[in-house]
Every structure is written in structure tokens, then in C-alpha cells.
Amino acid sequence: MRCRPKTNRACVYSFNSKKNIECGKGTSLQSCTPPKSYESRARRFFKAVFHNVKTVMDTFDNAPRRTRRACKRTGSQDATTKRDSTSVLRSLSVGNVNANDVMGEDLEHLKNGKLEGRVMSPRYSLLREVGRGSYGVVYEAVARRSGTRVAIKKLRCDAPENVELALAEFWALTSLEKRHENVVQLEECVLQRNGMAQKMSHGNKHSKQYLRLVETSLKGERVLDYPEEPCYLWFVMEFCEGGDLNQFILSRRPDPHTNSSFMRQLSSAVAFLHQNSIVHRDLKPDNILISERSGTPVLKVADFGLSKVCAGLGTGKGSAASRERGAGAGRKEGTSAYVNKNNVNVNKCWLSSACGSDFFMAPEVWEGHYTAKADIFALGIIIWAMIERITFIDAESKRELLGTYVRQGTEIMPVGEALLENPKMVLSIPQRRRSHMSDGVRQLLRDMLAVNPQDRPDALELHSRVGQVTCAA
Fold this sequence. Notes:
Blueprint: H1 9-12, E1 22-24, E2 27-28, H2 36-60, H3 79-90, H4 108-111, H5 115-118, E3 124-132, E4 136-143, E5 149-156, H6 160-174, E6 186-193, E7 196-199, H7 208-219, E8 231-238, H8 245-250, H9 256-275, E9 278-279, E10 288-291, E11 298-301, E12 308-309, H10 316-326, H11 363-367, H12 373-388, E13 391-393, E14 400-402, E15 405-408, E16 411-414, H13 415-421, H14 439-448, H15 459-472
Antiparallel strand pairs: 1-2, 3-4, 4-5, 5-8, 6-7, 6-8, 9-12, 10-11, 13-14, 15-16
Helix pairs in contact: 6-7, 9-12, 9-15, 14-15
């Protein structure tokens, strides 16, 4: 259901071609070959080095070779893949690394015998597979020392698209300085290759593998060495045993109290993200998880693979102008109350990648020119569908999913796409004749789903209004 950016990478990144790189005076890269005398020495040297690497890995890793099969969108998994995933996690020594890179090409640690001191016992044990998507697998696992259950997402970085999604999620979650009850918590992220692991840290300039992942994402082409040795990113996150919002809502009878609680939690999460310069861009019930550890359902906004961190995209001049325009105008998008600590107003940061899930995409996202107000539109679709239990059958998975749409004859069309074709269309809120939706909620949904993004409330105003309408109800 995800729409990738409509960009021709081959055209955009054609300036990265190696044909014009020079190796010497008037010599092209293709003609730079070493003399034969050095070639034999190099072959003997690397043969000895690789023998040492293999010996060390056999001693401390002792893991079978990993499968090269890519992730498929399917609910089943064969025995080979299960054994492979378990062995990879066992070889993942999460506590073994610091800022230094301990991947295969860093031979100084092998020569000096420092690798032994780095390898520690595995910290997690896989229990079962709980989800599988187009670019990753999610497992339920347990921390061996504390016994805490966690969710571990395994992402294979074998394609620029996968690397881009993985890094977007990593950058978004690591940019948060504080925790929020309704945003999934990232415990740690580990980069694994050749049976060795390295704990990821944002902006780690000393890690060659991290820099290569960034370069892969920017260039849109694989720059990692040895393609036969796959590279993985492992995200260790809090485990949500209640499933996603689809499963939770559709497996229970309607409950106005639960709906009001979920509305407050969702608006609080989006306000927190926008205050921290993060635009989610893929809000939908599938990406909202439920934790029931406290005895009451707690929502967790997850899956930041399409998110955008807007820090640094705003300008001081624009922010000052926004403050002047917003003076005395209440909590509109231009007020100083919404300019965060980074002096960035996410409602003034324009994005152009048409991405997301079509039933939750705002009209301006279909056009490829939008701001954080697109998240407000998606949230309006979710809340509307949740209150009235409006569902559709996903053509890909054949699952019944929460989501609002517009009927055109026998076909259904996403609300955002329908509003783009007919901006004067009036949405029927509520859809059902016998609805207990209050007037306050009805007006709030109409404002959230306004065609013009400037007519929608920003995230802070939305959270305040949600509190008012739910308390009144």
C-alpha cells in the first residue's frame, strides 16, 4: 500500500558516474591497474588476512552461513529461514561494540588481538515471528538477563530502497531526546555483517559501515562491499502484545470510552512528534500498536520508515514572520507556540515525496507538495473510521482494515484522492444515519479533513480540541 517517491533515481544520480573520476594524470579509473609484481604480493597478503578472519569468526561466532533469500510478503516461513534467523541473532553480540567499527575490513583489531575482548554473550533470544513485510521481519524476543520481552525488527540492507527506509526510521527515533507514552520506544539498533555486530549511533563518523549505508541511501545505488555477504539492521523495540489498531477495534464491541481515550492518545503522539520536527507520513491503523501491560490499552505510534525529520529545514526569518502573522490569532499554524526548540515550524516545511498509504493520504500528498498537516488529515481518517467502524478489504492482503472512503458507483476511492478531483465535495460525516457522534467530534473531523491544509488545525490545537470534545462527550 506504500507509494514510493516518484523519482527516477537513475536520472537524478547520474552525476555519480565513475567514468569521469581520475586516478592520475589523464588516466581514467578503468585503466588504473597495479603492476603484476604488486598484484601477486597483494594476493598473498589478502589470502593470509582472510584466513585469519575466518579463523577468528569460526572461534567466536560459530554460526552457520546466513540465507540470501530476500523478505517476501507472506505469512509463512520455512524451516531453513527459521534456523537462519535464530543463528544470526545468536551471533549478534549486541553488547560487544562501541563507536569503533569492528566489521571485516578493520584488520587492526584482528592483528592486535583486541577482538576477543569485544565479543560477549548474546543478549536476546528469539521466540517467534510476529510479522513480515515487504522489507523486513519482526520477531518477539526476550532479553536473557532481565527476561523482558522485546520486539526485534530485522531489515536486510541489500537495496537502496531498504536502506533508505531503515535509516529514516533510525534517524527519526534516535532524534527524540525524551520518551512519549504513545510513541514506540527504540531500545537500540545494531548493524550486523559478517557475523559481527556494531551498535548504531546517530552521526557516527567513525563507522565505515554506517557511512556506507548513508551513501547508499543518498546515491540510490549499492556501495557496500562484498554483495554476497548480506548486511542487516536489527531494531530492538518495546513489545506490544495487543496487536495493531485494526485487530484491537474490530475484535471488540464498540466502546465510546475506548474511542475517546484513543483519540486523546493519538493526538498527543502526533503533537509530540511535530514538536520534535518529525512528520510521520504513514499514519494508519496498521502502524498503531497496542500495549496492554498496564491493564488498559495504550496506543503506540510505530513504523517510521517513511518519516521525515524536518530539523534544520526552517529558517529564522520565516519563523519570525510566522510569529508576527500569528500574534493574537490563537493557536494557528503560524503562531510562536508551534515553533519548536529547533526554531522549526513543521507546518512550513514543504515535502515533495508522494508517499504513504493511499486511503490515508491527504489531497496535497497526491500532488507531491505538502507539510505536516498531511498527518492531521490521516489522523482524521483513522478517527472517523474508528468511531463508525468503517472498513474495506485490502486488495493485497485480503484483510478487513479500518479506513474511510468515498463511493463512486460500485467502486470505492480514497477520500484524499476524491477531494483532489472535486475540492467542493462535502463529506458525509457521519456516514451512518443512526450515529451517536457528537456535534463537537463531527465539526472536528470536518476541520481535520479540510481540502485546504491551512484550514486544518495544527497538532497542538488538535490535541487541545480533542480533549475538549471527549470531555464534553
